[in-house]
């Protein structure tokens, strides 16, 4: 066999070899219980640090101390009572904020005049943190429940408005033309085109709104409250009880995670028709 035939044989050999499997692009397969990996790792670091003395117990109580304290708070009913009060405040503020945000988004998103009147002031409010308005709200409403619920409402309606309004304005114009062609009424147009088209934006805003409700609640419950998780934490700060403060933080964190998980579940079910990278 001559040397000139070797390159040809090698090329035919390479062509005959099976092509290796290409790496699949994308996020890969879902990791079972993947959302629990981060919290479990954090808990492990906290436990090891407490057991070895790296973490001072006066600065941060050990996990087992926090669990014991939580059991005592549950046994005497303090945790359940304060949790129920906090949940009521958050849910009322969240519900009112959702209604206000959706109504304003519909008015502004479906009318040039509505946008001219509403969008500017809402964008100004967006640039001002809700908690910066607390001194003014206290002067207007006092330090009772109204002030707390209005503060939560202000932290909720902005993300609902922003994302719902964006969802309305990004609806494909071909659907609007189709609705005009088939002669839909204004109400049918809103029900069949506007609301389904704005749903992805609304649900995204709802995730931010739920987080905003709990963040606002943390602050307002530490202002002259007589009940709630924040009040329990503020009282514990006065007496240097870090274990009770950690219990309150864990409760707030758990409420935030559960709320977000519920909204994400609704999002997956309601938008199951969409083909996205995550799906």
Architecture overview:
The chain has 279 residues and is an all-alpha fold. It has a single domain, classed as MetI-like fold, CATH 1.10.3720. The protein contains eleven helices and no strands. The chain has helices at 6-16, 37-52, 63-75, 78-109, 112-127, 134-141, 145-169, 173-181, 186-220, 229-238, 242-270. The longest helix is centred in the last third of the chain and has 35 residues, at 186-220. The radius of gyration is 27 Å and the shape is globular. The N and C termini lie far apart (56 Å). The model has no long low-confidence stretch (mean pLDDT 83). Belongs to the binding-protein-dependent transport system permease family. Residues 83-263 form the ABC transmembrane type-1 domain. This is Sulfonate transport system permease protein.
End-to-end distance = 56 Å
Provide the CATH topology.
MetI-like fold
Fraction of helical residues: over 70%
Written as H for each helix and E for each strand, in order along the chain, the element string is HHHHHHHHHHH
Class from helix and strand fractions:
mainly alpha
Q: What would the principal axes of the Cα set say about the shape? A: globular
How many beta-strand segments? Answer: 0
Give the name of the CATH architecture. Orthogonal Bundle
Strand-residue proportion: under 5%
Instruction: Name the CATH superfamily assignment.
Output: MetI-like
Number of helices: 11
CATH class: Mainly Alpha
List the uncertain runs. none
Oligomer: single chain
Computed CA radius of gyration, to the nearest angstrom:
27 Å
**What can be said about the biggest beta sheet?**
none
The whole-number mean of residue pLDDT values reads 83
Overall tally of structural domains = 1
């Amino acid at each position: 066999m001559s040397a000139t035939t070797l390159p040809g044989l090698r090329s035919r050999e390479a062509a005959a070899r099976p092509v290796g499997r290409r790496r699949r692009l994308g996020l890969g397969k879902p990791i079972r219980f993947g959302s629990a990996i981060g919290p479990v790792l954090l808990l492990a670091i906290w436990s090891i640090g407490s057991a070895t003395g790296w973490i001072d117990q006066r600065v941060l109580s050990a996990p087992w101390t926090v669990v014991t304290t939580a059991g005592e708070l549950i046994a005497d009913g303090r945790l359940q009572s304060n949790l129920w009060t906090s949940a009521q405040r958050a849910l009322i503020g969240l519900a009112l904020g959702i209604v206000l945000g959706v109504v304003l988004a519909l008015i502004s998103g479906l009318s040039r005049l509505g946008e001219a009147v509403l969008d500017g002031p809402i964008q100004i409010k967006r640039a001002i943190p809700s908690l910066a308005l607390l001194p003014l709200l206290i002067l207007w409403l006092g330090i009772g429940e109204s002030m707390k619920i209005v503060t939560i409402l202000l932290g909720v309606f902005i993300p609902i408005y922003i994302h719902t309004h964006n969802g309305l304005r990004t609806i494909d114009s071909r659907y609007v033309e189709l609705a005009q062609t088939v002669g839909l009424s204004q109400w049918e147009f809103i029900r069949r085109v506007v609301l389904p088209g704005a749903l992805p934006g609304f649900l995204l805003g709802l995730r931010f709104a739920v987080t905003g409700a709990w963040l606002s609640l943390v602050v307002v419950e530490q202002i002259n409250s007589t009940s709630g998780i924040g009040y329990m934490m503020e009282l514990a700060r006065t007496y240097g009880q870090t274990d009770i403060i950690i219990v309150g933080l864990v409760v707030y964190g758990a409420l935030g995670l559960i709320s977000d998980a519920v909204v994400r579940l609704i999002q997956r079910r309601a938008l199951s028709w969409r083909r996205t990278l995550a799906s």
